[in-house]
Amino acid sequence: MTGFVVFRGVNKGIEAMSKVLMPILFILIIGISVYSLTLSGGEEYDNRTGMDGLMYYIIPNIDGMGVGDILKVIMSAMGQLFYSISVAMGIMVTYGSYFKDKDNLVKSVNQIELFDTIVAFLAGVMIIPAVYVFLGPENMAAGPGLMFVAMPKIFAQMGTAGTVMGIIFFLMVLFAALTSSISLLEAVVSGMIDKGISRKKSTLIEGGIAMVIAVVVCLGYNVLYFDFTLPNGQVGQILDILDYVSNNILMPVLAIGTCILIGWITKPKAIIDEATKNGERFLRKGLYTVMVKFIAPVLLFILLLGSFGVY
User: Is 130:150 a contact under the CB 8 Å cutoff?
Assistant: First the structure.
């Protein structure tokens, strides 16, 4: 109980900070997205424009793609969902345990769906057109690092104002990453508190372990550098290996286990009853039942097979 009270205090601080920083970051994303669409590369960049990049982003191009290629895209999108809404990480379970009985769970889920989708789309509008203009479509596969390649180029085009906006933007990204890190730590710390370890000691232990792993990961790009071919055919270093194990194996396995637990053992009705205990309307309970019992576990199993390079 003490750990819960302390967390509520810490969480209120984070919530207060988020109420200021997140709207600023959201406004920045909208502004930069609009500016990204106005970019023009000129002769140096074959006259590529931001609007060309937007079309590249929103219009599917399946020329030369087989069923397997399309399936890989779908599976990649599913994998992104794990990180986007923290599925199978323990975060939702931990935070859910702090949920008040009077809170509207259905409304919260709807808000998460809506805002997560909007922000994800705007992030693409912000980055993809700039990458298209300055680096070309052939460099779209660079991954998360694209933000640190494309965004400086956008800010450089803005002159002095771009320098200021760049500083503010990356500070906001830093704070966004910090709050996400706190969420990740809380899932582990909460479990340690349940075992009788104080929150302070739990935080120090988990923070120390995370710091050691972070140092090893950083060294993986210099002193401990090596190339390792993963089962899915990709070549990576220490960070890529850890990312592969957690994202491509552990999280799908846990998600499949969750579907089995909720869909066939606990039964979806238990979740539906919990979500509607204050009279809330759960209009998609039929869809939820079908998804958690049949569709989600099958798709997750296919995703897991892809992680092992089966297709």
Answer: yes
